[in-house]
Amino acid sequence: MTGKYRITTRKIFILLLLIFLIPIFLLTSISIGFYKTSLYDIFSVVQHKICGFLGLNNNGQINSRLAAIVWDIRLPRALMALIAGVGLAIAGTTLQGVLRNPLVSPFTIGISSGASFGAALAIVLGIGITGFSVYMVVINAFVFSLIAVSLTLGIARIKGLSQESIILSGIAVMYLFSALVTFLQYIAHEHDLKTLVYWIMGDLAFSNWKRVSIVSPIVIICLVLFKFAWDLNVLAMGDEVAKSSGTEPGTVRLICTVLASLITASIVCMTGPIGFIGLVSPHIARLIIGSDYRYSMFCSALIGALILIAADTAARVITAPTELPVGVLTAFLGVPLFLHLLLRSRREVWR
Amino acid sequence: MRGLTKLESTLIILLIIVAIVGGYGWLLAQQKPTSIETPEQTTPPTTEETTPPTEEITPQPKQVIQNITFVDSAGRYITVKWPLKRVVALSTDAAEVILTLGAEDVVVGVTEYITRKPELSKLTDRTLVGTCFKPNIEAIISTNPEVVITYVRWPSQEALEEKLEPLGIKVIRLDFYKISTLFNEVRLLGLLLNKTEEADRFVEFWKGILDEIQARVKKIPAEERVKVYIEGYKDYKAAGPGSGWDDDLRIAGGINIFADSPVAYPKVSPEAVIERNPDVIIKAVSTSVFQPYKATDPSPLKEIIQAIVSRPGWDQISAVQNGRVYVISGVLSSGPRAVVGICYIAKWLYPQVFADINPEDIHKQYLETFLGVEYSGIWAYPT
């Protein structure tokens, strides 16, 4: 009993440590950028804004440009990285769980290529589901990523929603939409092509408060997915075992896939398909905290957020004033961490 | 014990990441913020124009700040203080036009492509705000501009207007790369910068040449029109309708052999070019392959021509047989200098009709009188 107790304590300790790191990473991200700011500046801006919001008396003037950069540009972007990291990581963990496959990511079931196609339609041809131009890319990307996922699940349903059928139909749908994107790239004006390529590589530069507030409800969906952690544990032992313990594999798979897709689609339509987070955060979490989904899902969410915040900060800083695509940096930061854990680990995570 | 080691290693890695990221942040935090102060609010605007501007606006005494409302090429009503004093130019074409208007002092921020163009070297010391297609919003804000000037379509509104307009920075979208809208856009910018005379000089200079070319082209009978294959930067990427080169070719009186393409830059098969048998082949060269300004050695251009001539089966094409294969710098395809490109093309297509027109002289005159830089380099070959 004491041994098990100690292991649980250790897991909670790791989670607390990761939670503690989140504000540190956020603060660091907000402090760094082309426009030089000190920690004091950050605090004064935040204090000023919060006082203003609460209607309290603001004493002291504040540089309006500094305030705009910290409050309207960096803070929403850092929060978007936080939310996107959490969402992508949880979607990835869920999908790897329900599909029992370590190579699955939220993008395997066609979301990223569907979203890219929607964005490409808007960018290259100016075709939108709605006429409103500023959000044309976002709405298109969202709608088409859901179309792609519905297609995947619709095809898989014919085969009874087995994990193979979901993965294979997902790959088919992914290739279909990728081909469509390639075609649009072929006919695109070279300047549009540049815009599209940036979008497809993933980019947090479009973040603002409005977008953050639109995306933030996905955190609630994430909480719902935590409820399925035990079902995922049971499902990991195979469909037969799951059935005998009262979990219907097909239903769980469908609900979890739909929820994970919703999360991913909401994020991807705002940021473009940021790779790697959804694939590797679940593995990193499993390696440090074990394969019990009740812990690893939470841990994966924190890891995803940390990697994405760090990657976005690096993407903004390394080649300033130009920016690197954040997808490149997530891999650069995540792969060494992942490989280290993988080589150090003596545990067979995927049996 | 095993668990402890793993925990330790995890901790160490995380701490290293924190140390790197945090340390960097701390270092930055140590530096005092460079003093870029918000300028004092000057006297409030006294008069306000709400109708689209006419050219009759007379300069007011300096203390008075006027507002001016106009329509940009994206069709939006925009109100700015007149005249503009702090401008960020995202596109190279906009930067070049501002220079020709003699208003380089108003430019406070530029993008990477602008600094890479040696003809625009007057602007290289300005704050770099990323690239035109991926501008850095923080850098733009740090230059404290009144307006940002960029293309109608790029970058997207979500990347620019959505971020800058809440801060009171206006985005003016003017293309400057299409010959059909260039002159009106230059006149508008001239008005905004209080450089209307310079803008008129610019328009008169180019329009005079353009009208002359068009008048002569009109007299060339249809059966004497020349068939042309224009190739973009990549091999077999033709310039189809909608591309800048196609517009230039049309004005110069050529027949684009890929005018039927549904795409601006179609990838064509070598056979199709042989089958359509162009009388003239023109190849565009990007500045990353050959920097034309200050170039003295034409051998890279000779090699490009040699490579085209020796493409398998292309010795059957009449352009190759008659030695009518030319290269031209992509700089001359669109933008303020498109007319120079049109002159070269017109002269290559109809050497007798345009015998007295010298594209190099026109280019030289433009660079020296409008941009104020010395003319040099190789912009097309053979001439």
Map the helices and strands.
The complex is a heterodimer of chains A (351) and B (383).
Chain A: H1 2-31, H2 39-54, H3 64-98, H4 111-125, H5 136-158, H6 163-187, H7 190-201, H8 209-215, H9 218-226, H10 229-235, H11 239-244, H12 249-271, H13 277-289, H14 293-317, H15 326-344
Helix pairs in contact in A: 1-3, 1-14, 2-3, 3-8, 3-9, 3-12, 3-13, 3-14, 4-5, 4-6, 4-7, 4-12, 5-6, 5-12, 9-12, 13-14, 13-15, 14-15
Chain B: H1 2-30, E1 47-48, E2 66-71, E3 77-82, E4 87-89, H2 92-100, E5 107-110, H3 112-115, E6 127-128, H4 137-142, E7 147-150, H5 161-164, E8 170-173, H6 179-192, H7 196-219, E9 226-231, H8 244-251, E10 254-256, H9 270-276, E11 280-285, H10 299-309, H11 318-321, E12 325-329, H12 338-349, H13 359-371, E13 380-381
Parallel strand pairs in B: 1-2, 4-5, 4-7, 5-6, 7-8, 9-10, 9-11, 11-12
Antiparallel strand pairs in B: 2-3, 12-13
Helix pairs in contact in B: 6-7, 7-12, 12-13
Structure at a glance:
With 351 residues, chain A is mainly alpha-helical.
Structure description:
The model of chain A has no long low-confidence stretch (mean pLDDT 84). Chain A has 351 residues and is mostly helical. Helices cover 75% and strands 0% of the residues of chain A. Chain A is globular and about 65 Å long. Chain A has a single domain (2-344), classed as Orthogonal Bundle (ABC transporter involved in vitamin B12 uptake, BtuC), CATH 1.10.3470.10. Chain B has 383 residues and is α/β, with parallel strands linked by helices. Chain B has two domains: 47-194, Nitrogenase molybdenum iron protein domain (Rossmann fold); 220-381, 3-Layer(aba) Sandwich (Rossmann fold). Chain B is built from 13 helices and 13 strands. In chain B, the strands form three sheets. A five-stranded parallel β-sheet of chain B has the order 6-5-4-7-8. The longest helix of chain B has 29 residues, at 2-30. The interface between A and B is large, with 65 and 59 residues.
